[in-house]
Each structure stands twice: as C-alpha cells, then as structure tokens.
Amino acid sequence: MRPVSRDDPVWSDPAWADLHGPVLVTGTDTGVGKTVVTAAIAAAATAAGRRVAVVKPAESGVEDGAPGDIAEVVRLAAPATALTLTEYPDPLAPLIAARVAQAAPLALYDVVDSIRTQVKQHDLVLVEGAGGLLVPMGVRPSGEPWTVADLGLLLGASAVVVTRAGLGTLNHTALTMEALERRALPACAVIGAWPAQPEAVHWTNLSELRPRLAGVVPEGSSRLAPGVFQRSAPGWLTPQLFGVLDDWRVWIEEID
Question: Which residues are catalytic?
C-alpha cells in the first residue's frame, strides 16, 4: 500500500486542509465504534492545541442516572466541553424512542442552535450521531422526521464515517459515502475496531478503503487507561484528523 496522500480524491476538498467547526461522526451501522472514534479524534485534536467540544444530540438505551456515551468520551479524551442534549430509556432510534417514552422528540432547529453555540466557543465540535446516517432523530417544524444527514446539511459540516473492518463493510461504507456525497458533505472513513488478529478479509478491506481512510482504531482501545488512550490516539489517525499516521506501510509493520 502506498502512503496517505493529499492527492487522493477524498482529501482534495479544502475542508480537510484545516478541519474546524462542526464535524459529524456517523457510522455505517450501530455498534461500529462511533464513541471510541469520537474520543480518539477529540484526544488528538486536544493534543494538537484545539479547543474541542463533543455533542451527542440524542442517546437511547440509557437508564436514569446511568453513564452514557458522552461520559465515556469524557473519561477517555477529556475534551473542553461535552454534552448530551437528550436521552431516552429504550434502545431504539431516537425518534422512535421518544414516541415509546411519550417524550418530546428532538426539534431540529433547537439542535442546530445548540451546536452553533458550541461552534462559536470552540475550534472543533464533534457531533456524534446515533446509529447510521439516515436514522430518524426527531422532527422538523412540519412534523416530518429529520436525520443526522439533515443536521449535517444545515450545519455545513464535514463527516467522519465509522465503519467495520470485516465482511460487508465495503457496501455499507459506499452507501453511506454516496448519501453524504449527494448532500455535498465532505467525508472520510475511520475503521472503528481493527481486530487484534486480522484475517485476509480485513486486509483486503483496508486496501479498498484506504483512499478514503483517515484512521484505524484498534479493537479494545476503550479499555486503555485514559492517559494511554490520549497518548496513543494520534497514532491511529491521519493528519487530516490531527493524527500522525501518514504512511500505512509503517502502521502495518508496527502492528504485524
């Protein structure tokens, strides 16, 4: 594999030359590692001297008083600001979870306003979605559902797509990237859990994803001590995401 290059198509967008403002962290599915990737980017950006906020518009499947995804980001990365706008007890898509709980659904423009407030106060605002890009999050003033993609469009955000390493990831990643491209949202990919013992399918997927790949987070990284996580995170990410990984061949040699 050749080194990461700014000549690759994904990096030709000027958004990646100096990443700032709102950045969506979405995924090809649920459970792909969005939270640990969010923490890794937050840690790397903080180490690079950026003031970072992390916002999760909605989290479902959280019991009253139980720590959620944002608590994990705070533990691992210690960003300047971290907040969840709303939580629902049932592990469902946020809009569905709100209906089941008979709670008020997330209003799109309230979320936009909350994030824009953080953008004014921080260099980088990571917005961690729920599930995939087109999961129904809440309602528009018209009563129609809105998605993470809609939020990104209103914010003018860049997007990081967290993807799996294994079988099926090429199709799922391509579908998510295509949805972002149709909305003119610049996007890159990060593998959320690189296995400790990768097989042929993982290596071939890495090779296919590489032109759009901005990082690979090792499986089990969330179990690291916070200080170790923060020191390690830049090595998992390319310079476009405030990391130091600029040659995949070196990375492969180090983990092989």
Answer: 56
